[in-house]
Write a structure and sequence with these properties.
The protein is an alpha/beta fold and about 575 residues long. It has eleven helices and 17 strands. About 20% of the residues lie in helices and about 20% in strands. The N terminus is likely disordered.
């Protein structure tokens, strides 16, 4: 609950908003030019915006061997100018604040807070190998519901310097992961929410197409912008995306179902989304560098707002490769109490329970109602226990980001809301729950949530940082039977390999926001980065672990170390 949240709620729901800086739609989608002058150049070529020495960063398999870090320490005070503006970016680039270098790797930290000892090097088997993504926030950066004018160092996120290039970065990460999967295919990938940025149909469509590797992916809305004439030379040009290398699962986040992740899609916002009046400021790619403006935009019906039922139907309708159809959902799922699902990620061994934690009263924090616990969570936990399988929960919000109050700034409790400490007690009371995968806070964080006794040791909460913010990583996860009565969950962070100037530009702009203090701070405590999380094998799942088809090769200690 912060100042920005208050302003956003006012801006979207109650207030008149700032006066536009000028009125009217600009000349058919381009700044004024003589009829025979050709299309105006409103952007610089990627190479012109790069340092003179801008070779691709030499790839490494994972952050165990090398990391990517800013060449400059963060400023002691946030910079005066927004790095998402042309003036801000040019000024900071002249100081070299967008530079980054290869740094030493991060060693793996073994954590045993939930019982068991560090593996002693005996016979180990890899049981599952998958990818955890979080928080793409793939944005329609020209949407009239944007709140770009609210972006400040103290309350960031209304605008991002790198946002237009995010589809290229996710595609690059998919390509990098495909190279890792050449050694062994991933069982699945999972995106723990905020896939889209503002509950729009076009944003959700772009996410699905991006993860499926669509040819000619065009993440543009309204007018068909081409700020730099010619193909494949600016972020508004179509490009061929690289698919995620395996089946991928979707988890809804607050930005997927709420306007800018906060406001319920009421009739006013529904009309605003497909309208022309960006009272909170949006990018205008008819102006140089996609400058922020409150001038009228070109309307687009594909900006219409979508709710969870339509999002689930879009996923169910996606029956092509890489799958699975529904991306976790099935036609039989009951969405009455939330967009939850149970999905057998590794048959007979590992089940994913997606708990929809989004607050239907509005607001960015999570909220879980009693109906969701009674009709989905507890019955599915009981079923998994009876089936003798291991469980990983997945949700957008950590329990630390779940409350019991109505709306973004509410102090009125929701009568049937389940307190977060009760949720933790319920989940930790099931001995076969070994992990809970989350996002939302845009940080890498791993937390041990203890159970009530030695027979119910608890679970590991694993948060992976956002692709939309620095450092822009994915986490590769491997489940290992240590051969001594314990399991290990090995989590390893991966940076994407660079192959194009635009992929490098995304990273430079990530670094620029971080170094200038205009982005959320990163979390680089070693216990949250590359980890090995040990826990005893639940007796009820011992047969499933013993019978699982495994491999003696531990990819986290071979493939991810370049072997």
């Amino acid at each position: 609950m912060n100042v920005r949240s208050l302003f956003l709620a006012c801006l979207l729901l109650a207030c008149d908003g700032p006066a536009p800086d000028d009125a009217g739609v600009l000349d058919g989608g381009r700044d004024a030019a003589a009829p025979d002058a050709g299309p105006p150049v409103l952007y610089a070529a990627c190479e012109e915006l790069a340092p003179p020495d801008d070779p691709p960063m030499a790839p490494v398999p994972s952050t165990l061997l090398g990391t990517i870090t800013p060449a400059n320490a963060p400023l002691s005070e946030p910079g005066r100018d927004n790095p998402a503006s042309e003036r801000g970016e040019r000024g900071y680039r002249e100081r070299g604040l967008d530079r980054y270098v290869r740094a030493p790797g991060w060693e793996r930290v073994v954590r045993t807070e939930l019982g068991g000892a560090a593996p002693s090097g005996g016979a180990r088997r890899s049981l599952s190998w998958f990818v955890h993504y979080a928080d793409f926030q793939l944005v329609d950066d020209e949407s009239p519901t944007r709140l770009a004018l609210t972006d400040t160092p103290d309350i960031p996120g209304g605008l991002r310097a790198q946002e237009a290039y995010l589809p290229r970065a996710v595609s690059a990460m998919n390509r990098t992961l495909a190279e890792l999967a050449a050694a062994r295919p991933f069982d699945f990938g999972i995106v723990t929410g905020d896939c889209a940025d503002s509950a729009q149909y076009n944003e959700t469509r772009w996410v699905i197409d991006l993860m499926n590797g669509a040819a000619g992916l065009h993440t543009d809305s309204g007018d068909d912008d081409d700020p730099l004439p010619g193909p494949d030379n600016d972020p508004k040009d179509p490009f061929d995306a690289v698919a995620f290398p395996g089946p991928w699962l979707y988890v809804p986040g607050n930005h997927d179902v709420l306007v800018v992740g906060i406001s319920l899609p009421d009739s006013r916002l529904t009309d605003a989304a497909i309208g022309t009046d960006p009272i909170g400021g949006t990018r205008d790619w008819r102006r140089p560098f996609g400058a922020v403006s409150t001038r009228a935009v070109v309307a687009d019906p594909d900006r219409r707002l979508v709710g969870r039922d339509e999002i689930v139907q879009m996923l169910l309708d996606d029956t092509g490769a890489p799958g699975p159809a529904g991306h976790g959902y099935s036609p039989e799922d009951d969405l009455t109490h939330g967009a939850h699902y149970a999905y057998d990620a590794v048959d007979g061994l590992l089940r994913i329970l997606n708990l929809d934690t989004n607050d239907e009263t509005g607001g960015s924090n999570g909220l879980v109602r009693r109906g969701a616990v009674d009709s989905f969570l507890i019955p599915e936990l009981e079923r998994a226990r009876a089936d003798g399988v291991l469980v990983m929960l997945a949700s957008h919000h950590s329990t630390r980001s779940i409350d019991v109050f109505r709306g973004q700034l509410g102090s009125t409790p929701v009568e049937d809301a389940v307190p977060p400490d009760e949720l933790e007690r319920i989940v930790a009371g099931y001995e076969n729950v070994i992990a809970w995968l989350v996002g939302h806070s845009h940080q890498n964080r791993v937390r041990a949530v203890a159970g009530p006794d030695a027979d119910h040791p608890g679970y590991w909460e694993i948060m992976t940082s956002a692709m939309s913010d620095y450092p822009g990583q994915a986490r590769v996860v491997e489940l290992v039977d240590n051969g001594d009565g314990t399991l290990s969950i090995l989590g390893t962070l991966v940076d994407y390999d660079e192959e194009s100037c635009m992929e490098r530009r995304y990273r430079r702009l990530l670094v620029l926001e971080h170094v200038t203090g205009w982005g959320d701070p990163s979390n680089e405590l070693p216990q949250n980065l590359n980890v090995e999380l040990v826990r005893t094998i639940p007796p009820g799942a011992a047969s499933a672990v013993a019978d699982a088809t495994g491999t003696d090769r531990i990819e986290s200690e071979t493939t991810l170390r370049g072997e």
